[in-house]
Design goal:
2 domains, 12 helices, Cytochrome Bc1 Complex, Chain D, domain 2, mainly alpha
């Protein structure tokens, strides 16, 4: 597997993370723990404080408070916690492949996983108006055709359907292109079916619209 340049630069840092967390496998059910946290505000606050410490390690790639500074790395701020937990599970069991992410997530306990997703869910993204309103308007038309049923009118998703509003443009473009082509280990039949309806100009317009959503 080819290692991206920004991954190679943090190899030593990842080793430090693994030592800091301890090479302990997650035990228990993160989904159940998330439900417990939602029913118990004190537990949720305690886990979120724990998650903020874990997020300090994630900030190297995903940015301070989940606001990524790298156009090909997704924002995590405001993301659906159940979606983030599912992506962690997929990295840990190999359904999504990234050596860096796999190693870090496997080293996290259940409470750390739940805490960090609660922390990111509580963060906000600054609004970025569309640089090209006409392009975004065309994207809105395509969004209504192929995206709104799952991601919602505001692009914030629900449960295990991710928030895409305000997401990084390059990340969105490459993700949509991969779903359309079927390349890579990340697959989803519904996303594959919908993205086959899009050419590059449609994706460009969609991204212009989605990145402008609050």
């Amino acid at each position: 597997m080819t290692t991206a340049p920004w991954h190679r630069g943090v190899t030593v840092w990842l080793c430090t993370v693994l030592l800091a967390f301890g090479a302990r496998a997650a035990t228990g059910d993160p989904d159940l723990r998330l439900v417990q946290a939602r029913q118990d505000p004190k537990l949720a606050q305690a886990l979120q404080r724990q998650g903020s410490k874990v997020a300090a390690f994630c900030a190297h790639c995903h940015g301070e408070n989940g606001q990524s500074s790298k156009p090909d790395v997704p924002n995590l701020a405001g993301q659906q916690p159940a979606y983030l937990l599912e992506q962690m599970r997929q990295f840990a069991d190999g359904r999504r492949r990234d050596g860096f992410m796999e190693g870090m997530i496997k080293a996290m306990s259940v409470d750390e996983r739940v805490g960090v997703v609660l922390f990111y869910a509580a963060q906000t993204l600054p609004h970025r108006p569309a640089a090209d309103p006409a392009l975004a308007a065309r994207g809105q038309q395509w969004y209504a055709k192929v995206c709104v049923r799952c991601h919602g009118a505001d692009g914030r998703g629900d449960g295990k359907v991710p928030r895409i509003a305000g997401q990084q443009a390059l990340y969105l473009e490459s993700t949509l292109a991969r779903y359309r082509s079927g390349a890579g280990s990340r697959t989803d039949p519904l996303m594959a079916a919908n993205t086959r309806l899009l050419d590059d100009s449609h994706i460009e317009a969609l991204v212009a619209y989605v990145t402008s959503l609050k």
